[in-house]
Amino acid sequence: MKNKERFEDYLNEVEKILSDLEGGNIDLEKSLEKYEAGIKALKKCYEILGAMEKKIEVLTRDEQGNLITKPFKKPKE
Amino acid sequence: MFICGCSLLVENKNTLPLFKEDKTDRKVFTVSELTERIKSCLESSIGSVWVSGEVSNLRQPVSVHLYFSLKDEFCQIRCVLFDSTRLLIKFQIENGMKLVISGRVTVYKKSGEYQIIIEAVEPKGIGALAVALEQLKKKLSAEGLFDPSRKKPIPFLPQKIGIITSLSGAVLQDILNIIERRFATSHLVIYPVRVQGEVAKEEIAQAIDDFSTLPYRPDVLILARGGGSIEDLWAFNEEIVARAISRSKIPIISAIGHETDYTIADLVSDKRAPTPSAAAEIVLPLKDDLIKQLSNLHNKLVDSLKYQIKLAKTKLTALQKDSGWQAPLNKIREFYQHLDDLSGRIAVAMKSKIETLSLLLSNKASQLEGLSPLNILSRGYSITKLLKTDKIIKSIKEVQQGEKILTKLRDGQFISVVERQ
Q1: Are the C-beta atoms of residues B384 and B405 closer than 8 Å to each other?
Q2: Sequential DSSP letters for B63-114
Q3: By C-alpha distance, which of B73, B41, B70 is closest to B57?
């Protein structure tokens, strides 16, 4: 299984950075570094959101019994 | 049969004289014949019955058939549950269990014992399915399948969602509609299965297993079925489904029936949604909320940096004003003041010193004046020097006859010659 980039990991990173920044007790230089890291992680979040596409598939088996995906068609009522 | 046997014996006793007297009237059965007669007598006169009682002496020999006695306070009857019938029963029969059975009364010819061949079994009081459910629950719970520690976390934003449910019915459409509303750009993979009937459990278990084998697995699975009776939902109480859920590599949200329905699948799954619609609400956040949250976080980041800068500035200003920081300057100022002070004092000191000195000087001057030879001369003394060397003559030995000497008086001098020594 591929190592997927998870939205929530970046989101948590931003939140952690923010709480560090809001907690004070770090010097300005470090704050700047953290800010930049935060913006970078935020960008990743937007990237992941942007890469998501609407797709509905049906997983089924073909005649040979192999798993295949087909586009989903809404069953007629 | 026991009672029947007794009466036969009694009859035999009574007819004992007859037995001796008239041998021709006797009808002698073989054991098999009699047994057969008893058997047909029992089967035709009693036949199928419903009996209630408590299970005891339960045993299952090498064959798969089940043997036990059904008893009450005073009596017991042997029962046989053949394998073909046993498979239709959802729960396990245990000693001490109170049952209502239906079966045929018959005779086991080999041992001459009458027994009931069971055709249907129901636990007394509660339904069979409820008992089966409790039994499976107990078993799986003992194995730890319901342990919270086994539950996989549900991802916050799954990028691919697997849905195991029936293509027919409103459930799938409900889920699709809700997901469309919450997060239109989501990737869904539907695995159609039957959710009712005998094959349902195998199809559901297979679907769960299949998802785990995919090269690009979904991040989460939804296992859904609409509401129904306990029988309708039964597939989700089957052990095979429970095992498939527990070995799934993908976290599973179960959404079976209505809010009040709790199936085994709900207990094993990583999260239970009260209804299929609720599962769709749980599985994805609202995209709009997410975007709002991100922009909120962005603002907060910017604000906090601004605040940090402001804080640093304030600190700097405070530092400039800080007395500690000011200390060296004050020292210098103090030093200057001291210097000023000192120089003032020096000036005063010097002045008085000069005054003292000049007073001393004038004293000395007057003293000196008193000591001046000229002063002495004025009192009638004179100074005599050798004219040649200008040396003051302090002894007679310093002059010779005929030498010219100079004598200084108060108001002039004269030269004379030494006449005699």
Answers
A1: yes
A2: SS-EEEEEE-SS-EEEEEE-HHHHTT-SS---TT-EEEEEEEEEEETTTTEE
A3: B70
Rg of chain A over Cα atoms, rounded to whole angstroms, equals 21
Q: What is the pLDDT of residues B97-128, one digit of tens each?
A: 889 999 999 999 998 999 999 999 888 876 66
Query: Is residue B218 within 8 Å of residue B161, measured between CB atoms?
Result: yes
Please give the pLDDT value at position B369. Answer: 66
B235 Cα to chain A: minimum distance (Å):
20
SS3 call for B383: strand
ipTM of model: 0.86
Rounded distance, CA B209 to CA B201, Å?
12
Q: Is the pLDDT of residue B10 over 50?
A: no
CA-nearest residue to A31 within chain B is: B305
* Chain B residues near residue A46 by CB distance under 8 angstroms: 294
Whether B219 contacts chain A with CB within 8 A: yes
Which residues of chain A make contact with B305, given a CB cutoff of 8 A? 21, 31-32, 35
Q: Does domain B148-285 have CATH number 3.40.50.261?
A: yes
Contact B159 A38 (CB under 8 A): no
Whole-model pTM over 0.90: no
Task: Report the CATH fold assignment for B2-125.
Answer: OB fold (Dihydrolipoamide Acetyltransferase, E2P) (2.40.50)
Instruction: Nearest by CB to B217, from A1, A7, A15: name it.
Output: A1
d(CA B406, CA B383): 8
Each residue of B370-405: pLDDT tens digit?
666 666 677 777 888 888 888 888 888 888 888 889
Q: Where do the structural domains in chain B lie, given as residue ranges?
A: 2-125, 148-285, 289-321, 374-417
The full length of chain B comes to 421
Distance CA B366, CA B363 (A): 5
H runs (alpha helix) in B128-183: 128-142, 170-182
In whole angstroms, how far apart are CA A4 and each of A13, B291, B420? 16, 21, 145
In which band, very low, low, confident or very high, does the pLDDT at B6 lie, cut at 50, 70 and 90?
Answer: very low
Contact A67 B210 (CB under 8 A): yes
**Given the structure tokens 């590599």, which residue do they identify?**
B249
In the predicted structure, residue B9 carries a pLDDT above the cut 50: no
Helix axis angle, A7-23 relative to B287-321, nearest 10°?
20
